[in-house]
Amino acid sequence: MEDTNKKTKKNDSSKIQFEEERYTLKKTNPAVKVVIIVFLVIWAFINLFPIYFMFTFSLKSNEEIFGKNVIGLPHDWLWSNYSSAMKTGNMGLYFLNSVLVTVAATAITVIAAMMATYAITRIKWKMSGLTNSFFMLGLTIPLQASIVPVYVLLSNISKKPVIGGIFGINTYASLIIPYAAFTLAMAILICTGFMVEIPYDLDEAARIDGCGLWGTFFKIIVPLMKPALSTIGVYSYLQCWNEFMFANVFISDSVHRTLPVGIKALSGQHTTNWGPIGAALCIATFPTLLVYVFLSKRIQESFIAGAVKG
Fold it and tell me: What pTM value is reported for the model?
């Protein structure tokens, strides 16, 4: 019996050693390295070319964009397109509006998702399963199907003398609350996958040490949920920053308009100066790229942790 175990271990170790040697051979093979490098260069070019095209597009005139110099660098670097987009197109105000709406909606989503998930998964009460099912129904409702009922609701609220100016049509809340509501279901689903893996013994130990419900939540659960917070924050940010339909329907004035709707407004009825539109697209796109550049490690760790939890 011992001889059989030794042979099995020997075969397993030799197999692992062979696989390691085979992997090392492929890794050090010059031909394989050249193929990998060429493939990665081509893939990087494919992914970076749209950014390059959009940036050069924003610095050209209509003559260069349509025929003379479509792909190349601008002959005349028209940085005035950015000032035109900021002043004439009012992109500065729209950018601040998008930041305000996105930050507020993301904060509400993160806080509400964490608290709702904690109540559903860590507190024992009769309606917890039904409540979780109710939240998950939000994943089945298309965003387009909710525009009319939400608009009717906001229109009725607008008629109220006090709350109409805060939560009605043409207010920041008319975007913040629907954005947070429609991202909450996915946020709770993500949080649930993380929170169920946290041992319940930590809650009991915290109670023995004198922590109440809120103390256990903020001192024990929240620090362990940082990967989930990163995932929810990125998801909510992308959903709110790029949203167009709600912003186009619920906001009709220029004071509360966000970037996607503001870019659409730059297009004229008869003639269009496309350079400032390209500049506005860069203003709307580059913040997302910068967020990913500086938080890429945290974002990747959160997605990997979520995959392991699942």
Answer: 0.78
